[in-house]
Amino acid sequence: MTTFRRKTVLLTLSQVAAAGLCACSPPTIDWESADSSSRVSQIVQVSRDRDMTKLPRLVRALRSDDALVRMTAGDALTRLTGEDLGYRYYETESKREAAVKAWESWLAERRERGNTSSPQTSAPLTPHELRTESGDGQRQP
Questions:
Q1: Residues with Cβ within 8 Å of residue 42, at least 6 apart in sequence
Q2: pLDDT band for position 110 (50/70/90)?
Q3: What is the pLDDT of residue 120?
Q4: Could you give the number of structural domains in the chain?
Q5: What would the DSSP string read from start to end of the chain?
Q6: What distances in angstroms separate CA 141 from CA 79, 129, 130, one per listed residue?
Q7: Is residue 41 in some structural domain?
Q8: Structural domain contains residue 59
Q9: What is the end-to-end Cα distance of the chain in Å, rounded?
Q10: How far, in Å, CA of 98 to CA of 48, rounded?
Q11: Which residues pair with 139 in a beta bridge?
Q12: pLDDT of 29 higher than 80
């Protein structure tokens, strides 16, 4: 793990710990907030709650200008789905965009199959499942 990644992870963990110390009610989610720590806290809460309905918002957060928001959203998506689809928050914008498009395709496939509910009622499609699905709905060997 690089020094930059280590520092970024430690910063994320300290923000999560600080957010957990608040005894007040959780704030309203403001996904477009200019305050990155607010967005990071909301992403962490979505991950903690395993709120699969927020997956599209997490995918949109992968395009953030803020590296910490991108890293936290990518980690949340991986935690919720078990997949990373090649997304690396520190890559160039063009490489990140290709991975974001893979996430968008993954979400579209879930919607087509009707898998928009919680993980208790339907498991997410894995990239392997997406690759082995043929056009006629039959699995390829």
A1: 27, 29, 30, 31
A2: confident
A3: 35
A4: 1
A5: --HHHHHHHHHHHHHHHHHHT--SPPPPP-TT-S-HHHHHHHHHHHHHHT-GGGHHHHHHHTT-S-HHHHHHHHHHHHHHHS--TT--TTS-HHHHHHHHHHHHHHHHHHHHHT--S-TTT-PPPPHHHHHHB-TTSPBP-
A6: 28, 11, 13
A7: yes
A8: yes
A9: 37
A10: 27
A11: 133
A12: no
Relative orientation angle of helices 3-20 and 36-49, to the nearest 10 degrees: 80
The single-letter code of the amino acid at 101 is K
Structural domain of 103: 3-16+31-132
Where does residue 46 rank: exposed (0-12), middle (13-18), buried (19+ CB within 10 A)? buried
Residue 49 lies in a domain: yes
- What are all long-range contacts of 33-39, with beta carbons under 8 Å and residues at least 24 apart? 36/64, 36/66, 36/68, 36/69, 39/64, 39/66, 39/69
Local confidence band at 111 (pLDDT 50, 70, 90 cut-offs): confident
User: What is the radius of gyration, based on Cα positions, of the chain?
Assistant: 16
- Give bridge partners of residue 133 from the DSSP assignment: 139
Q: Summarize pLDDT for 43-58 with one digit per residue, the tens.
A: 999 999 999 999 999 9
141: in domain: no
Over range 86-104, report the average pLDDT: 95
